[in-house]
Amino acid sequence: MAILLPYQNLGCCNGLFCVLKNSRKRAEIFQEIYLWNPSTRTSKKLPVISSPGYVRNYGFGWVESSDEYKVFVLLFHYDYYRGIGNWVGKVYSSKTKSWKTIELSGYLRVSWGRGVFAGGKLYWKNYGDKEGITFWDLKSEVFGGIELPFDREGYGIVGVLGGLLCVLCFNDEIRGYRVWVMKESWEKVVTLSHLLELLQPPLVKGLNGDILVNCGSTVVVYDCRDNVFCNLEYRSFSLSCHVCVESLVSPKDL
User: Fold this and answer.
1) Residue 187 lies in a domain
2) CA distance 107 to 102
3) What is the pairing mode between strands 156-161 and 164-171?
4) Domain assignment of residue 190, given as a range
5) Residue 68: pLDDT band by 50, 70, 90 thresholds?
6) DSSP per residue over 201-246, as a string?
7) Using one digit for the tens of pLDDT, what is the confidence trace for 187-196?
8) CA gap 254, 252 in Å, rounded
9) What total of structural domains would you count in the chain?
């Protein structure tokens, strides 16, 4: 049985969060999407998506050239009478303040959940026999793909570090992780030894080389020079951490 979480973070960009609110009435599931600015404590409920189905993949980002925010959701609806599933892509634009349907070229073999936003694109890790990363360009609204930066290392987790696309991958030989970032090409930037419980790539890298990482139940500061880390005070059963900057952008204008 699937667990219905009351809130899901669809993405964070320029100090704004895009949040999915789930609720259940009898046998039906209702999903509402909000834009929220925690700095100003203001929010806006987006128009209801007309297509049936539940949100499987999602992302939120900004088109710099047009100063336009976009929300992408991939909906899945299963027709029990006909025995088939239907995939629908929807995009909300802050310019039109409405949703539109986009073309999907077949089934997208991407991991469930949030696409990370970097450089005007949303990125998801692929799964199955098509290893790599799928991206959706917010400006052109087309899909594309890039290869992973490694051959013999473990499963990669896609994230953002310093505004750049990054991949966290487990390496059996060092019993730790390596972090790659995409500049002109993939570059290995840091190795995290002795950390075996990472749920997402590093959040922030400081000028002195220390980095902030999420270790599942706690957040730690990792010293790459001495290969040591210290736990921060906050601890929880499960953490989802995001970097957010203060912003005066009003969701009501989007």
Assistant:
1) yes
2) 13
3) antiparallel
4) 154-248
5) very high
6) --SEE-TTS-EEEE-SSEEEEEETTTTEEEEEEEE-SS--------
7) 888 777 665 5
8) 6
9) 1
